[in-house]
Amino acid sequence: METFALLLAPALAATINAGTPLMLAAFGLLVNEKSGVLNLGAEGMMLLAAIAGFATTIATGSVTLGFLAGAAAGGAAAAFFGWMVLWLNTNQYATGLALSIFGAGLSAFLGIPYTGMSLKASSVAIPGLSKIPFFGPVLFNQHPMVYIALLLCAFLAWFLNHSRTGLVLRATGESPESAHALGYSVRGIRMAAVIFGGACCGLAGAYLALVYTPLWQEGMTAGKGWIALALTTFACWKPWRVVGGAWLFGGVTILQLNLQGLGVAVPAQIMAMLPYAATVLVLVLISRNPDWIRLNIPASLGKNFNPNSA
């Protein structure tokens, strides 16, 4: 039993580590969607943030500045997306896909000088707590961004359900016409939500390049932006469910690595597809209950709003 615990603890710690970038990105996308904006450009924003954070850390030696650069890159890309869909009224789906493709291409070009470079992996052991048997190495020997992500979850749960600003944000996603009639700037609220979402995706991308890997590689997100998009639906747009979903998908990712390490005779291609197969399976199971989605999805998600015609 003790041997099993010794093997399980590193796997659970790695699961939390793998789930953190999904969690951060999904929180940002959740706020986007609560305001009524669907941004399919998460993959591109995460890649731009990954190279921005990695290059900044290489140049300055500061991981903190790397995370700030990643958040800024994600926020800037999201602001451009917001200007396109909120002021120029472009199609949200097409614009998001274009952002994803553009971010992948630009990050690959900007990352050419940094290919092959790496950083030292970092984690912070909380004094005392990290020595607790089993739970210490799992919960209290993680990078600070893991704890920041959990605090962000608690903040969003309070903000969206108990603050006036959060309720107004939700109102713009349910009925932008009503919010506009009450004197609220729907465009301004949605733009703030989009930038916040981009910054969260930026933190997720920076986490991949600075903590999870830590190195720069073209296309290093490997579909995690799309998984984060699916995660918001899986969680029914509720922050606490995002945490469980992120750890679930993170666990599937770690499972493939552990099975390979144990020498399980399964083709590597099958192992690599496990996280994406799990994503598809979860979405299929959710879609079997359309009422569940209909009761939770923001009513105006993906629909443009022009105040001049309201």
TrEMBL record:
Any Pfam family hit: BPD_transp_2
The coiled-coil segments of this chain are none
> Which superkingdom heads the taxonomic lineage of this protein's source?
Bacteria
Where does this one sit in the cell? Cell membrane
Q: Give a yes or no for keyword Ribosomal protein in this entry.
A: no
Entry GO MF terms: transmembrane transporter activity
- Please give the start and end residues of each transmembrane region: 42-60, 67-87, 93-117, 138-160, 191-213, 261-286
- Look up and give the membrane topology term: Multi-pass membrane protein
Q: InterPro entries in the record, alphabetically?
A: ABC_transp_permease (IPR001851)
Q: Which UniProt keywords apply?
A: Cell membrane, Membrane, Transmembrane, Transmembrane helix
Example GO CC term: the record gives:
plasma membrane
Name of the protein in its database record: ABC transporter permease
Origin organism is Noviherbaspirillum pedocola
